[in-house]
Amino acid sequence: MTAALDTSRDLAHGKVSTYTSGCRCTECREALRLYTADLRARRRAARATVNGRPFATADQTGKALQHGTPSTYQNWGCRCFSCRLAQADDHANHRERNQL
Fold first, then answer.
1. What 8-state DSSP symbol labels residue 48?
2. 56-86: string of b/e by CB count within 10 Å (b at 16+)?
3. What does pTM read for this prediction?
4. Do 67 and 83 have their domain in common?
5. Which residue range is the domain that position 89 belongs to?
6. Which of 7, 58, 75, 92 has the highest count of CB atoms within 10 angstroms of its CB?
7. Residues 28, 61 share a domain
8. Number of C-alpha atoms within 13 angstroms, CB side, residue 13?
9. Residues 56, 47: Cα–Cα separation, whole Å
10. Which residues of the chain have pLDDT under 70?
């Protein structure tokens, strides 16, 4: 278990690094939200269109993405058949796990 962040220290709020260090103030949450939205937009802008569907090809370093995973569907916005199938399967499994 990690200790709670000591918010009495003089921290640079409104930064992603402060959020990842444990701060959950409004400014740090907003910084993370903006960073995540920008990251998602950059990833989706880098997609190619294959057979009329968005297809994510590589990460920022040029490394090929693994297709057929919920992560590639969710984080990279890939809508190839393999990624859509993986997302649907993951969603069905999640629904089964959470039924009463």
1. E
2. beeeeeeeebebbbbebbeebbbbbeebeeb
3. 0.69
4. yes
5. 46-100
6. 75
7. no
8. 14
9. 5
10. 1-9, 100
